[in-house]
Amino acid sequence: MNNKPLRPLYTIPYTAWILLFVIAPIALIIYYSFFDLAGHFTFDNYINFFSSVYLKLTISSFWYAFLITLFTLLFAYPTAYFLTKTKHKQLWLLLIIIPSWINLLLKTYAFIGLFGLYGPINALLETVGIGSQQILFTDFSFVFVSVYIFIPFMILPIFNSLDKLNPALIDASRDLGANSWTTFRRVIWPLTLNGVKSGIQVVFIPALSLFMITRLIAGNKVITLGTAIEQQFLVTQNWGMGSTIAVFLILFMFIIMLITSSSDRGTTINGKVK
């Protein structure tokens, strides 16, 4: 039976979804970005974005997103590697992924209790003689909680890349006299780079727009683009400026997606396509 006449019909749900929930919201954000508080058409929002305040805010957002992504990668890669070596690797992977199913707000409030002045972490510090410390509402607590939340999303693509890695390539590297570091640098890392890029993408992009964690964990001492958008829409009611920040945030995300995009057509090792 020939289904070619029906094929255009199959794309209708997908096209409708893209138009209604992707293109239309972005177009609406761009539209509102050209209006001021009084509802007048203006380019001042875009001019103001390049002022020192918003430039510092953008740099700060990228810095914290970079730190979160870096620490997440440093913990996720060895974790994913050792998971591939365990006997029940799928079970251990599931145990790591399960916490991501818990509501983000619940996990955030759990860390407020853990890091609070009367929480178990400070109780432990008191026991060992260090004394109570202000852990909550600091850069450390913000980065730590963010890394904890994002680490399953970094582990999963790296685990998949490592799990698909042909062990014969590692054995061949060892047979040719390469040590463990050389094998990792010249064989394992290049062959799993697509997984790393995917992990960086799914961590760095949402880390740019964090706002709930900055309020509850960092106590507004950390201001990101996401926090600025929330303040413009809900506090100052300046939808134009909030939309302008959102436009640049979408642009940054698109650039990051282009930079971290991966292709499975070939794998590069030492500049050669395999």
Shape: globular
Can you tell me the CATH class? Answer: Mainly Alpha
Q: By helix and strand content, what is the structural category?
A: mainly alpha
Outline the biggest β-sheet.
2 strands, antiparallel
Share of helical residues: over 70%
And the CATH topology? MetI-like fold
Task: Write the element-wise H/E pattern from the N-terminal end onward.
Answer: HHHHHHHHHHHHHEE
What is the CA-atom radius of gyration, in angstroms? 23 Å
Our count of helices gives 13
Which CATH architecture? Orthogonal Bundle
Strand sequence of the main sheet, in spatial order? 1-2
Mean pLDDT: 88
Q: Report the span from N to C terminus.
A: 40 Å
- The number of domains is 1
How many strands? Answer: 2
CATH superfamily: MetI-like
Strand content: under 5%
Low-confidence stretches: 265-274
